[in-house]
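Chain A, query sequence.
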Amino acid sequence: MSDSLPRYALALHTTTPELGIAVAPLGDAPSSLSPPEAVRIQVWDLGHALSTQIHVRLQAFIQPLSWSDIALVAVAQGPGGFTGTRVGVVAARTLAQQLDLPLFPVSSLKAVARQAAQESSAMADLRDMAVEMPARRGQVFAAIYAPQRQGDLIKLVPKLPDTVMDQAAWEEVKQRWPNPIQDVFAAGPLGGTVSAVLAQAMARWRQGDRPHWSEALPFYGQSPV
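Chain A, predicted structure.
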């Protein structure tokens, strides 16, 4: 690549057995709901091999870019599987520290909500989005986001931060919620939502946010045992 300033964003998603990696040029225009054509994404179903394969896959994926072309790193910080979440956050922190780059941690649930917004092109009613993902011991990871239209963009404002609770308690929260709700279920592997992780980070970058790598911490929600 040229010696010009680095203008690429890199994102990792490892909170499920899938490894998702995405890279895109930062550009100058705000990101829209739909990922730009220049976004390059790849997803691998690695299962238990994720921890041993992540660096090999990342090194191959980044080509033909060099590490000096990267301006920011983003990572899904959970909730999700304990081992996968930890592997991804540690890898992202190591990259950001070694390359002296900002690191943007993004909630796995918020990434799911953003992807749901991307796939619902009209978003006519802009209902609050209640995101749910299965957790251990019959509990659920849950969060509620309020979509706000800003021109052609949708901003997701957290109204109920990521948490874990019993299914019955979650249903009661939704029943008592003062606004209309759209249920969003985060079922199955989530590696493909790495594009939403990337989009969230790029939006914050363009707003002038530059979080230090040490601020990125995994959100497990539950003990692994």
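The CA atoms of residues 24 and 37 lie 9 Å apart. The longest strand covers residues 153-166.
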